[in-house]
């Protein structure tokens, strides 16, 4: 089993870059990923993380979970350069996130604050929907060296780490979305990409 998994990852990494991204409907996105317990070995894990980081940047995206490249392990990467309009960045409390490796992550809400914003996913291309999430979370994870880290995230960074951790449990953001907010990208860009979701809430009725 372990060697089959290593072989699968090695084969994937020998193929073209960026890695192909798996989209909704593929079972790997719905089956809870296995905890990472050294199955790949340090060198292959490092190569996988490099390829995931490259694939995330190329997409472009701010996070990528291993199931999104067809690997059912609890491994994800995230990074947000927050290169967006200042008013949008401020409304979303989007201050950027340095490169992060999430292995076997879990999160818990910090406080009772909530934040509702449009969110998308590389595995559900072409759409966005509003997800109401805890505004701040405490994230526990291993990093690439195997060190256990616990850290609090707030604002847009909290949204990113929740979204990626959810992937590893077989959850897509649509499972948590206010489905009446669903919009294709053309309508999102034309109508709903402002700082607040209130106009969409009023007019789409969610
Ligand atoms: Zn996603």
How would you describe what is shown here?
This protein has 206 residues and is α+β, with helices and mostly antiparallel strands. The protein is 33% helix and 28% strand. The strands form two sheets. The protein has a five-stranded antiparallel β-sheet with strand order 1-2-3-6-7, with helices on both faces. Strands 4-5-8 form a three-stranded antiparallel β-sheet. The longest helix is centred in the N-terminal third of the chain and has 18 residues, at 41-58. Bound molecules: zinc ion. Residues 121-123, 163, 167 line the site of zinc ion.
Task: Tell me briefly what this model is.
It contains six helices and eight strands. It has helices at 2-14, 41-58, 86-91, 155-168, 185-192, 198-205; strands at 63-65, 75-80, 97-109, 114-119, 127-134, 136-142, 148-154, 177-184.
Put simply, the count of helices is: 6
Per DSSP E runs of 2 or more residues, the count of β-strands stands at 8
Helix content: 25-40%
Low-pLDDT runs:
none
Spatial strand sequence of the major β-sheet: 1-2-3-6-7
| Residue-averaged pLDDT | 95
Percent strand = 25-35%
Tell me about the largest β-sheet: 5 strands, antiparallel
List the helices and strands and how they pair.
Blueprint: H1 2-14, H2 41-58, E1 63-65, E2 75-80, H3 86-91, E3 97-109, E4 114-119, E5 127-134, E6 136-142, E7 148-154, H4 155-168, E8 177-184, H5 185-192, H6 198-205
Antiparallel strand pairs: 1-2, 2-3, 3-6, 4-5, 5-8, 6-7
Helix pairs in contact: 1-2
Bound molecules: zinc ion (ZN).
Zinc ion binds next to α4.
């Amino acid at each position: 089993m372990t060697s089959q998994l290593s072989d699968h990852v090695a084969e994937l990494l020998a193929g073209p870059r960026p890695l192909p991204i798996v989209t909704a409907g593929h079972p790997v996105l719905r089956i809870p990923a296995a905890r990472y317990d050294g199955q790949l070995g340090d060198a292959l894990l490092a190569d996988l993380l490099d390829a995931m980081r490259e694939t995330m940047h190329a997409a472009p995206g701010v996070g990528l979970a291993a199931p999104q490249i067809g690997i059912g392990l609890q491994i994800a990467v995230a990074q947000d350069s927050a290169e967006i309009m200042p008013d949008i960045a401020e409304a979303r409390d989007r201050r950027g996130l340095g490169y992060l490796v999430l292995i076997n992550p879990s999160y818990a809400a910090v406080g009772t604050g909530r934040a509702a914003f449009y969110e998308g996913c590389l595995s559900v291309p072409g759409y966005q929907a509003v997800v109401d999430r805890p505004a701040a979370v405490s994230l526990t994870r291993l990093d690439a060296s195997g060190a256990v880290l616990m850290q609090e995230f707030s604002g847009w960074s909290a949204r990113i780490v929740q979204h990626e951790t959810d992937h590893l449990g077989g959850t897509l953001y649509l499972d948590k979305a206010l489905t009446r907010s669903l919009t294709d990208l053309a309508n999102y860009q034309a109508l709903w990409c402002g700082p607040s979701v209130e106009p969409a809430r009023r007019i789409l009725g969610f």
